[in-house]
Amino acid sequence: MKVKGIPTRTIWPLRADGAVGIIDQTRLPHRYETVELRTLEDAARAIADMLVRGAPLIGATAAYGMALAIRDDASKARLSEAYKVLHATRPTAINLRWALDEMMGVLKPLPEGDREDAAWARAAAICDEDVEICRMIGVHGMDLIREIAERKDGPVNVLTHCNAGWLATVDWGTATSPVYHAHDEGLDVHVWVDETRPRSQGAALTSWELLNHGVPHHLVTDNSGGLLMMRGMVDLVIVGTDRTTASGDVCNKIGTYLKALAAKDNDVPFYVALPSPTIDFRLDDGIDIPIEERSPDEVRWVPGLTRDGDISEVLICPEGTPAANHAFDVTPARLVTGLITEKGVVEADKSAIARLFPERVAAE
């Protein structure tokens, strides 16, 4: 995608400088700033503190984190240490473990002297693969938008939740990729953007993306979706996911389950866009997915731009009020119309998913 007309990815190698570049997403939408990661600790901190976020981008950052970790010590002990440090950063997104397993599978069999070059090469390949996967998600998802456009007057209204855009991946995004493809093809498409409390990824990130790309959209409060669906103002819902089970249960940003319930009650198609590495073939039941609990201060304090142009935080509750901050929820497969993958749209069903990805099933 483009930032100020310049083709841009969310992460890029700066190997000549011994670093990896990223967009600091905690500064968006008010500041566009980049950061250089130079150490294992830098990569781990970028993931944990959400300078990078979104399951595919977390995985890509972890892959480069492995490359940074072994610049001066490529021993098996160092590989194991790096794996442990990076894996502990965020428990829910399965792409993190997938990327680390990919790196270990490539690096462990090699002589120590060959590991650094191989690590940079595999991390770069993981990023390139993610771009192509997300592009194909857009191609398949665009067909759903086109089908609706052919039978109605006016724009196709898509509701999304959180940020499953190109900022959550290396490029294109998952849930937004069909929207970008449809828009670029000249289809009349409009997006309802959930603000997505408490970190406001919809307001801060998805809105920023769509505005930069020229896609018509409106920011709405998280509780607006039911009303919009009831009034016939939503044609389909497309969300992303941080982990999807082998049976099609979907773990995504907190609040997704409520959107799925509202969609079911109003006969609105509810789709989940995901790259195949986000499918956890070791799990059948979404209840077993670990749900990350983040700092209560993310609920109690809200960042924003002041009228003076400063980025600041304000307390929105009584100072002594405690808060709970569950970052994700699980939507049962029965509420999911279909999964939009790089291989096509598939029913959220164990047998259907296994038929589409037999190689993944065999690998597990």
UniProtKB/TrEMBL annotation:
Q: Which Pfam families is this protein grouped with?
A: IF-2B (PF01008)
Q: What is the E.C. number? A: 5.3.1.23
Check the record and name the InterPro entries matching this protein. Answer: IF-2B-related, IF-M1Pi, IF_2B-like_C, Initiation_fac_2B_a/b/d, M1Pi_N, NagB/RpiA_transferase-like
Q: Catalytic residues per the record?
A: 242 (proton donor)
The annotated site for Transition state stabilizer falls at 162
Q: In which pathway does it act?
A: Amino-acid biosynthesis; L-methionine biosynthesis via salvage pathway; L-methionine from S-methyl-5-thio-alpha-D-ribose 1-phosphate: step 1/6
Q: Which residues form a coiled coil?
A: none
* Alphabetized GO MF terms: S-methyl-5-thioribose-1-phosphate isomerase activity
User: Where along this sequence does the record place binding of substrate?
Assistant: 53-55, 90, 201, 252-253
GO annotation, biological process? L-methionine salvage from methylthioadenosine
Q: Which SUPFAM superfamilies match?
A: NagB/RpiA/CoA transferase-like (SSF100950)
Keywords from UniProt, A to Z, are: Amino-acid biosynthesis, Isomerase, Methionine biosynthesis
Q: State if Isomerase is listed as a keyword.
A: yes
Cite the Gene3D superfamilies for this sequence. Answer: translation initiation factor eif-2b, domain 1, Translation initiation factor eif-2b, domain 2
Q: Which reaction does it catalyse?
A: 5-(methylsulfanyl)-alpha-D-ribose 1-phosphate = 5-(methylsulfanyl)-D-ribulose 1-phosphate; 5-deoxy-alpha-D-ribose 1-phosphate = 5-deoxy-D-ribulose 1-phosphate
Record's family? Belongs to the EIF-2B alpha/beta/delta subunits family. MtnA subfamily.
Q: Which HAMAP family match?
A: Salvage_MtnA
- What is the protein name stated in its UniProt record? Methylthioribose-1-phosphate isomerase
**Organism in which the protein naturally occurs:** Jannaschia aquimarina
